Amino acid sequence: MNMLKKIQNWGDHHHPKWLDYFRILLGLVLIWKGVDFYINMQAFSNLMRGAFLGTAISISLLAHLIILMHIIGGMAIALGTYTRLFCLLNLPILIGAVFFINISAGIFKPYSEFWFSCAVLFGLVCFLIEGNGILSVDRQKPYPGKAALGKNHN
Fold it and tell me: What residue ranges are annotated as transmembrane (predicted)?
């Protein structure tokens, strides 16, 4: 646990501002892939046609979980709130996409998504270590209440 705190502390203190733009781009890419995954649900429907009921339900739940993790996680990463948590939650999805889905489809075929998935996986690992950064919702100062403004004028 001590090593995890050291990595988190290092990431919080060594985070250049330009890296936040890549975090925002990573979040937008995850949102886009979640929406794209939802639009192309026919591939999962084809998987479920010949399957037993339990397998079909599992595939359907997995597909909907992937969509939710990409869209909600992408929004959180782009905004800079709970960045490390949502990077961690999206890691298994991207590991599965890189090593099980895209590598079997052929990495050197035209329009292969293998390299794109690898770049997103690299970004998730990077921001799992680096954290939010300066341009994030978590780093914004809250609006001061009446007590912080000084004198109360009634």
Answer: 21-39, 51-73, 85-108, 114-135
- Distance of alpha carbon 41 from alpha carbon 64, whole angstroms: 9
CA distance 76 to 103: 28
Q: Give the Cα separation of 87 and 101 in Å (integer).
A: 20
Q: What is the mean pLDDT of residues 66-89?
A: 94
Q: Supply 13's token pair.
A: 């203190």
Residue 94, both tokens: 């991207």
Report H helices in 50-100.
53-79, 83-96
Q: Which helix (H) or strand (E) holds 119?
A: helix 114-130
The span from the CA of 154 to the CA of 140, in Å, is 29
Q: What's the pLDDT at 154?
A: 46
In 3D space, the residue among 76, 77, 84 whose CA is nearest the CA of residue 131 turns out to be 84
Number of CB atoms found within 10 A of residue 150's CB: 8
